[in-house]
Write a structure and sequence with these properties.
The chain is mainly alpha-helical and 174 residues long. The longest helix is centred in the N-terminal third of the chain and has 27 residues.
Length: 174
């Protein structure tokens, strides 16, 4: 269970970020037929909405996380199962479902939504996993690709990627 939670935090945060970005694309793509806002609408209405809302909420974040986890798990640059680190993780259906659940919770929480994250803090979850800057960057690239896949708008992608990037010091080990 300890290894599962450690990997879940690492992946959950990355996946969560990707999910949030993808979700925003799914939720905000109204197509060309969407009418422009009325000229007298309140300014900064979109700015007052949380990233969670702009991403499309739990359903959109879940879709992004599903795509992201599959993408990251298949990326040898990520070393998703932490092979050779002493903290190997078995990607069983149960472990993967648990990881996705934690990622959706984490992304929902950091994006300003109503979700409560049930996992541990980033530093303790990732301790001893030997995650390198290159692996962190590859995971971020997979999240970005998932967000692009769901056509998440640039602004929301940048916000989510900034949140993900802010965890680097707690995740990457020298």
């Amino acid at each position: 269970m300890f290894i599962t939670r450690r990997v879940a935090w690492s992946c959950a945060y990355a996946i969560g970020m990707a999910s949030a970005l993808l979700a925003s694309g799914c939720a905000t793509d109204n197509g060309p037929a969407a009418p422009p806002p009325p000229p007298m609408s309140k300014p900064d209405t979109a700015a007052k909405r949380s990233l969670y809302e702009r991403l499309g909420g739990e359903a959109a974040i879940t879709a992004v996380v599903d795509d992201f986890v599959g993408r990251a798990a298949g990326d040898p640059k990520v070393n998703f199962t932490r092979a050779g680190t002493g903290h190997e993780w078995a990607a069983t259906p149960e472990n993967t479902a648990h990881l996705k659940k934690l990622l959706v919770q984490f992304i929902g929480m950091v994006a300003g939504g109503p979700k409560h994250y049930e996992g541990r803090d980033m530093k303790s979850v990732h301790a001893g996993m030997k995650i390198s800057n290159a692996e962190f960057d590859a995971l971020a690239g997979d999240l970005s690709a998932s967000l692009d896949h769901f056509s998440v708008p640039t602004k929301e992608q940048q916000e989510l990627m900034a949140l993900v990037g802010s965890t680097r010091a707690e995740i990457v080990e020298p």
